[in-house]
Amino acid sequence: MRVLVPFAAEMPKTRLESVLTPAERGALSRAMLADVLCAIVGAGHEPRIVSTAPLDLEAFDLPGEVAASVSGTVDDRSLTDAVNARLPGSERRDRADDVPDAVAVVMADLALATPDALETLLSTEATIAIAPGRGGGTNALVVRHPEFLVDYHGASYLDHREIARDVGASLETVDSFRLATDIDEPTDLVEVLVHGLETNRAPARLRAFGFELDDRDGRVDIVRDESVTTK
Predict the structure, then answer these.
(1) Angle separating helix axes 22-42 and 115-122, nearest 10 degrees
(2) pLDDT per residue over 88-116, tens digit each?
(3) Can you tell me the distance from the alpha carbon of 123 to that of 142, in angstroms, rounded to the nearest whole number?
(4) For the chain, which end, N or C, has fewer CB atoms within 10 Å of the first or last residue's CB respectively?
């Protein structure tokens, strides 16, 4: 099975602009991508990054086993078009891309993903398996049906369920807190600090930015030490 990881290399995570500078958003995005890559390799698969711009993978300083398993390609098309070009249907294959019979797509901002959570999704037998995100998105999926196309606009989880039914594919929804939590909004950063693995880069990056948990009002939030400066 090929595991694709789409990555917006330019102007990432704009919805975090109220709490992070452009440079910080880029650094956090790369940290989350590295964590996702490590989780995929830990689950026994080799991830392929599909990036909107060239990436220097050596600069990520990935562990040796992970670095040896990761490959990358550049595709500046929309997320939907870039993914559809790499799904099993032969009529949609890029000529330069050898597409296997099963393709998984895992988003690069799943900072809480673990090998076990991913393996639960990747080991399903359904021809379409979906791990939905909060708010109706699609955070990860497995495609084994040659007629299935993704559509990441709007409530894509509902759209993907309907598309699977239309093409006659068997469908399984994977209910996973760790795969449902994508990091888009400032409030999502709480989840990274609460549930992120101690060995992961994203929690460490946020702490380096001066963020910490704050539960003084009876509800967990984050605060930032403004004396901490980043380049």
Answers:
(1) 60
(2) 975 555 544 566 789 999 999 999 999 99
(3) 9
(4) C
C-alpha to C-alpha distance for 4 and 167, rounded to whole angstroms: 22
Q: Beta partners for 223?
A: 212
What the chain holds in terms of domains, given with CATH numbers, is 2-185 (3.90.550.10)
Q: What is the pLDDT of residue 55?
A: 95
Give the C-alpha separation, 202 to 198, whole Å: 10
Whether the CB-CB separation of 145 and 169 falls below 8 Å is answered with: yes
**Residue 49: φ, ψ to 5°:** -75, 135
Give the integer Cα–Cα distance in Å for 87 and 110. Answer: 21
- Distances from the Cα of 108 to the Cα of 12, 50, 104, 122, 145, angstroms: 11, 10, 13, 16, 23
> What is the Cβ-side half-sphere exposure of residue 155, based on CA atoms within 13 angstroms?
6
Q: What are the pLDDT digits (tens) for 149-160?
A: 999 988 999 999
HEC sequence for the chain: CEEEEEECCCCCCHHHCCCCCHHHHHHHHHHHHHHHHHHHHHCCCCEEEEECCCCCHHHHCCCHHHHHHCEEEECCCCHHHHHHCCCCCHHHCCCCCCCCCCEEEECCCCCCCCHHHHHHHHCCCCCEEEEECCCCCEEEEEECCCCCCCCCCCCHHHHHHHHHHHCCCCEEECCCHHHHCCCCCHHHHHHHHHHCCCCCHHHHHHHHCCEEEECCCCCCEEEECCCCCCC
Cβ-contact 182, 5 below 8 angstroms: no
